[in-house]
Amino acid sequence: MDPVAQDSGAEERKNDVIVVKGDEGALSIELMLLREGVARGFLRFSPRNLKLSSESADRLAQELARRRYLKVLVQDNKKGVLRRSLASRGWGVGRAVVPSLERSCSAVTTYDLPIDERLLDSSGAMPNISNTSHLSGISLELGQRKVWAFFTDDGETARVISEGEKRQGMLVATETEDFFTAADCLVHYLAAIRKSWAVFSTDLGRFIRKFDPTTMWRMELDRPIPTEHGCALASGKNRRELVRLFSEYYDESTLQASFRLRKYRTDSNYAVYHREGGFVITRLDGQTGLIYDIYVTPSRQGEGLGADLMRCALTGLAGKVSSCYLHTSYPRAKRLYERFGFSTVHTQLAIRLDEVALVPHTAK
Hints:
Layout: H1 2-5, H2 10-14, E1 16-22, E2 25-35, E3 38-46, H3 54-66, E4 71-74, H4 81-87, E5 92-95, E6 106-108, E7 120-121, E8 136-142, E9 145-154, E10 157-160, E11 169-173, H5 178-192, E12 197-201, E13 214-222, E14 232-233, H6 239-249, H7 254-266, E15 270-275, E16 278-285, E17 288-296, H8 305-317, E18 323-328, H9 331-339, E19 343-352, E20 356-359
Parallel strand pairs: 3-4, 10-12, 17-18
Antiparallel strand pairs: 1-2, 2-3, 4-20, 5-20, 6-8, 7-11, 8-9, 9-10, 9-11, 12-19, 13-18, 13-19, 14-15, 15-16, 16-17
């Protein structure tokens, strides 16, 4: 991405946000240029079961087409608002990562690695399988050679992290060029078994470049301090609005959102704060605080709500923790956090396995 970022118009494209509003609700997509002709979109929508009117869908299609991207990668909502709106207007809408395998593979563990062969991990060293009994993996045959890929199963997320003491995955082969095939097969395998995310350490980035992974940042702030804000703790007064916001942010039913809110409110480690049009959730972990989730509904974006919610979160943590942190892959949110003094301390790469690829009819 660096060569593209040097383009004189790149900064404008990096901050490109499409907002479509109508009587039916609102939808926003922030577009981030990945490489020439390809962008990633970050979707926000309200209400949860948003169905764009014909006029709004036309406007969305026109705005996307005006950007002249050959492909836009974006996570559609469960109701397929983008698929419904764009497919009938000539756009190609399909899975970015096809959930099927071109090669047959077998499920393995690290104990299935042969000990009588000269094997290499992705750093070129002999694989160290100590403390790897928690890893799942696949193996595949490439002619006379075999290659292995291992990951940690973390619910909806599969982690292939080779850095640090607690390894959460690795690639193993006899020939270094086979790591590309191993990573490719693993990503498609994880999509086939319905994982939502595949997270890789940055040293493995060259093997997954073809999937246009998004960057995930861990950001930290020392000694949060209190400031004035206009937010309130979750209560019976704002419960209905919070359930509605939870429902659209987590893309779940009102009942599920209600249970989620109850869980957070009954756990003393969590705090939920509300301001009309948004919410923020914090969590205590000993002397460390976490900005767990923060959300502003699309119709209220650009009004300063995100900054007020951050002031509220930091005020709630002030005096209780020595530092706080958060994770994000959302560029606009990252810029907001940096304004509050957060700095990036760790970076990983993530592939959203259920993303869709939007292709204008002129590029198909």
